[in-house]
Specification:
0% strand, single chain, 2 helices
Length: 64
């Protein structure tokens, strides 16, 4: 139980979702849900040298 709680806290702190399957059939459902969620995720990484503490900057991104 302690390991499960640690995994749930880790998922929560990293913005994820903890999923626990009660039986083998639920594993397929959880995996399917996870794949649906991941296909909607975008990660954008960039560095702006002007982005110093206190700077008021805006950015625009277009996803096509």
């Amino acid at each position: 139980m302690a390991e499960r709680e640690r995994l749930e806290v880790l998922a929560w702190r990293t913005g994820g979702t903890a999923r626990v399957a009660r039986d083998a059939n639920e594993i397929v459902d959880h995996a399917s849900d996870l794949l649906d969620e991941l296909h909607g995720e975008l990660i954008v990484t960039f560095r702006d040298e002007r982005a110093v503490p206190g700077a008021a900057l805006r950015y625009r991104a277009r996803v096509q």
